[in-house]
Amino acid sequence: MIELNRAGYVYKEGGPFERNALEEATMQINKGEFVGIIGHTGSGKSTMIQLMNALLLPTSGTVTVDGQVTTDKSTKLRDIRFKVGMVFQYPEHQIFEETVRAEISFGPRNQGLSGQELEDRVNQAMEMVHIPQKWSELSPFELSGGQKRRVAIASILAIRPQVLILDEPTAGLDPASRDKLLKEVRNMRDNLGITVVFITHSMEDIADIADRIIAMDKGRVKFDGTPQEVFSHMEELDKMGLSVPEVTRLTARLGLPLCFTVKQAKAVINKELEKHNA
After folding, report:
1. Which of 200, 223, 219 is nearest to 210 (CA)?
2. Strand order, beta sheet including 212-217
């Protein structure tokens, strides 16, 4: 679905404040995957996702989305951005309409939808993230942080993207709101079959939800694999400023199979206790 081939990006190229944000990043994201991207601030992960939906174009290498190279003159970047929808870390940065319904309908309206087709698309997007109809005429700026994120996600889902990118979607949310949002994101992937790319600083969140993890460090892809493969590099991750879930450290110290969630650890420990008591 998305492929980066030695992709790089330099901010303020040629100027006195030139900075390499991404260097020779090579990776691919397949259709239907749930991919988590982790890395400390400045590691290149935000630049990477902006290359994925052509908000930025690589200064070296290539980025290919659904067979289209973003830097080719024949590529319509508008089409790329409809295929790869992005929800920013702070939803207020992308919310601007006067009402919730107007916000969610903005994208599909720009795709040429109108009338009942537009209404159906908006209603479906609202239903996917459990936005009640009574919110329709409210100002999105009156909503809580978690509610704003759901409106921002619905506004992207309404354009029917093939890829949904979420940049720190749980940042600042209370535990209940975080768990609810993660559950909704999982359900969207399972029910819609869309590809999800999820950036977070929370190792617990990413371990619980991702099929695959890409760890970034100093503008490069450091690790790329399953949660078990990536979190097995605990010492290297610590040096990168990343900390694996505490339950993973605990199971490693106990010599048990690596677990990433309390639920997994409980099952493994109960199994070991049954063996011991047998």
Report:
1. 200
2. 84-87, 163-167, 195-199, 34-38, 212-217, 220-225
Cβ pair 230, 218 in contact under 8 A: no
SS3 236: helix
For residue 111, give the CATH number of its domain: 3.40.50.300
Q: If phi over 0 gives left and psi between -120 and 50 gives alpha, with beta otherwise, what is residue 42?
A: left
- Asked if 7 and 80 sit in the same domain, the reply is yes
Q: What is the pLDDT of residue 119?
A: 95
Domains identified in the chain, total number: 2
Residue 229 shares a structural domain with residue 262: no
**Confidence (pLDDT) at 273:** 87
Predicted pLDDT at 191: 83
Classify 5 as helix, strand or coil: strand
* Residue 81: burial class (beta carbons within 10 Å; 0-12, 13-18, 19+): middle
Are residues 278 and 147 both part of a single domain? no
